[in-house]
């Protein structure tokens, strides 16, 4: 195909603009959300169907490729039938996953692996990483952040009390993450509670970074937020 001068110039400008904007064309995403969940908030409603012994620490939900424009590529090629038995992730990493990334819900023969497989197939396949590299990065990044300690050191603790959004924002200001709420009923009232904290991770999966804008509260309303025990 022969391109005339105008076409060549257009291609050059588009290429340059997408490079400058850091768009996701090359990789399909720009960064990850490392999604940490507060298990009590996953499990404290009647239909949650959680296993007993709900952890009292933030656990991993997943690490999701994201684009700067708000997209989230999903279900790319490379799905696995079962992460644990696939032979694609080493034992040390699987051990760390069992500790940090439990399936909180009942069901199946290997509930943890079921949850990881869902997360790999939906999100991990779009990371352009091999399963071993992806899962190792997820557990290493999660281990590098102690959200509960950070909140506690700012006197925000899981005690069923209500906290001001501004105080939560101040406590988490190294990360400027997304704080996602869900609803809980207690004593005949409905409250917003901390459900997930979504941290930003560089595209190579090697560093947790600030999300680069003010902390976003999603589904939290405008009022104070409960941190459930
Ligand atoms: P995702 O598809 O990545 O957006 O995750 C949402 C799905 O994961 C929903 O079906 C949730 O019920 C499920 N989920 C979230 N956290 C857990 C958990 N800790 N264990 C099992 N399933 C979970």
Set down the secondary structure blueprint.
Layout: H1 5-20, E1 31-37, H2 39-43, E2 59-66, H3 91-100, H4 111-122, H5 131-143, H6 147-153, E3 162-163, H7 165-171, E4 178-186, E5 189-202, E6 208-209, E7 216-218, E8 225-226
Parallel strand pairs: 4-7
Antiparallel strand pairs: 1-2, 1-5, 3-8, 4-5, 5-6
The protein binds adenosine monophosphate.
GO molecular function, one term: RNA binding
GO cellular component, one term: extracellular region
GO biological process, one term: RNA catabolic process
Explain what you see.
- β5 and β6 (208-209) form a beta hairpin.
- The protein has helices spanning 5-20, 39-43, 91-100, 111-122, 131-143, 147-153, 165-171, and strands spanning 31-37, 59-66, 162-163, 178-186, 189-202, 208-209, 216-218, 225-226.
- α3 packs across α5.
- It is built from 7 helices and 8 strands, in the order αβαβααααβαβββββ.
- The chain is globular and about 45 Å long.
- Residues 13-22 have low confidence and may be disordered.
- It is of the alpha+beta class.
- The strands form 2 sheets. Strands 1, 2, 4, 5, 6 and 7 form a 6-stranded mixed sheet that branches. A two-stranded antiparallel ribbon has the order 3-8.
- The longest helix is centred in the N-terminal third of the chain and has 16 residues, at 5-20.
- The chain binds adenosine monophosphate.
- Adenosine monophosphate (AMP) is lined by residues 37, 42, 61-62, 103-105, 115, 119, 122.
- Belongs to the RNase T2 family.
- One of its GO terms (cellular component) is extracellular region.
- One of its GO terms (molecular function) is ribonuclease T2 activity.
- Keywords: Disulfide bond, Endonuclease, Hydrolase, Lyase, Nuclease, Signal.
């Amino acid at each position: 195909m022969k391109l005339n001068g105008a076409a060549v110039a257009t291609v050059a400008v588009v290429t340059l603009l997408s490079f400058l904007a850091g768009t996701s064309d090359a990789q399909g995403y720009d960064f990850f959300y490392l999604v940490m969940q507060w298990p009590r908030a996953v499990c404290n409603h009647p239909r949650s169907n959680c296993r007993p012994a709900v952890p009292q620490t933030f656990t991993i939900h997943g690490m999701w490729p994201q684009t700067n424009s708000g997209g989230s590529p999903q279900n790319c090629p490379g799905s696995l039938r079962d992460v644990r038995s696939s032979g694609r992730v080493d034992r040390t990493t699987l051990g760390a996953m069992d500790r940090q990334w439990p399936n909180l819900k009942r069901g199946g023969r290997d509930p943890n692996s079921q949850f990881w497989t869902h997360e790999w197939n939906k999100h991990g396949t779009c990371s352009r990483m091999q399963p071993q590299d992806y899962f190792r990065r997820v557990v290493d990044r999660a281990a590098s952040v102690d959200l509960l300690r950070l909140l506690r050191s700012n006197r925000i603790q899981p005690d069923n009390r209500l906290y001001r959004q501004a105080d939560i924002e101040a406590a988490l200001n190294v990360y400027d993450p997304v704080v996602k709420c869900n609803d809980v009923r207690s004593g005949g009232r409905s409250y917003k509670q901390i459900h997930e904290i979504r941290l930003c991770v560089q595209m190579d999966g090697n560093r947790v970074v600030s999300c680069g804008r003010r902390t976003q509260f999603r589904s939290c309303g405008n009022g104070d937020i409960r941190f459930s025990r």
